[in-house]
Design a protein that fits this description.
- The structure is a single chain.
- This protein is α/β, with parallel strands linked by helices.
- It has two domains: about 180 residues, Vaccinia Virus protein VP39 (Rossmann fold, 3-Layer(aba) Sandwich), CATH 3.40.50.150; about 60 residues, rRNA adenine dimethylase, C-terminal domain (Helicase, Ruva Protein, domain 3, Orthogonal Bundle).
- The protein is built from ten helices and nine strands.
- It has a seven-stranded mixed sheet, with helices on both faces. A two-stranded antiparallel ribbon has the order 1-8.
- It is elongated and about 65 Å long.
């Protein structure tokens, strides 16, 4: 029996692995990122290095974060001629990305993110946004639509509000299933997130903003009056900055920030 090729790897369902194999799409992604020699790039989940190779051609120093131990020797062999290539064997959900920017340029984060960790990982990165210049992710199209959705859109929800509070978001282009091996059952898309240098709307308490948004969308068919009843019982409705007869999807980020600031002010006055 022939020995197993050490450079071959079977995609694992538990890691949500679907490897990008379309070279035209890879070039399109790299053009959208626009890597430069001086960039401080970190790639999350490089897989078998499809995008990694193109990034290294433009930016010879590159960090990658990979959890699958079987992929690490493949990556080491494939990119051993790049002295600036560094593998961080870690769970991206627990990884301290800000450490990679310590004393260096802000991070440019790139990744093909599995659906099951995409939302918590984005929020984990946003907690370290002071160290991040921009982020380019391949995600399920459904998640990208939610990230970029505007008020009134059926996809507009908690993820939209909180991500847009911290970032400018741009849905760049779709990536169909046949570009991967194995082919997923869903459409994917590339999204760009750029943390605001200065927040357009400043919440006095980020915790209160998160609570208001979470409650407002937890029962999205209800009016704000009913969805936020537990928070607003002590606030005179006539003094509120939003119409409580509306549903959550009718408010924009500025509305949510203004409402949460009123709630914060009330709490501080008690």
């Amino acid at each position: 029996m022939a020995n197993k090729n050490p450079l071959q790897h079977q995609a694992r369902k538990r890691f949500g692995q679907n490897f990008l194999v379309d070279h035209g799409v890879i070039r399109h992604i790299v053009r959208a990122i626009g890597p430069q020699t001086q960039d401080n790039i970190v790639e999350i989940g490089p897989g078998q290095g499809a995008i990694t190779a193109s990034l290294l051609e433009a930016c010879p120093e590159l960090n990658v974060v990979e959890l699958d131990r079987d992929l690490i020797p493949i990556l080491r062999v494939k990119f051993d001629r790049y002295p600036g290539f560094k593998i961080n064997e870690a769970d991206a959900l627990k990884f301290d990305f800000s450490a990679l920017a310590d004393g260096k340029a802000p991070l440019r984060v790139v990744g093909n993110l599995p659906y099951n960790i995409s939302t918590p990982l984005i929020f984990h990165l946003l907690e370290q946004r002071q160290s991040i210049k921009d982020m380019h992710f391949m995600l399920q199209k459904e998640v990208v639509l939610r990230l970029a959705a505007k008020p009134g859109d059926k996809n507009f929800g908690r993820l939209s509000v909180m991500a847009q509070y911290w970032c400018d978001i741009e849905d760049l282009f779709d990536v169909p299933p046949e570009c991967f091996r194995p082919a997923p059952k869903v459409m994917s898309a590339i999204v760009r997130l750029v943390p605001h240098n200065e927040l357009p709307h400043v919440a006095h308490s980020h915790e209160d903003l998160e609570t208001v948004v979470k409650l407002a969308f937890s029962q999205r068919r209800k009016t704000l009056r009913n969805a936020l009843k537990s928070l607003l019982d002590t606030l005179p409705e006539a003094q509120l900055c939003v119409d409580l007869g509306k549903r959550a999807e009718a408010l924009d980020v500025a509305d949510f920030v203004a409402l949460s600031n009123q709630i914060t002010a009330l709490k501080q006055s008690l």
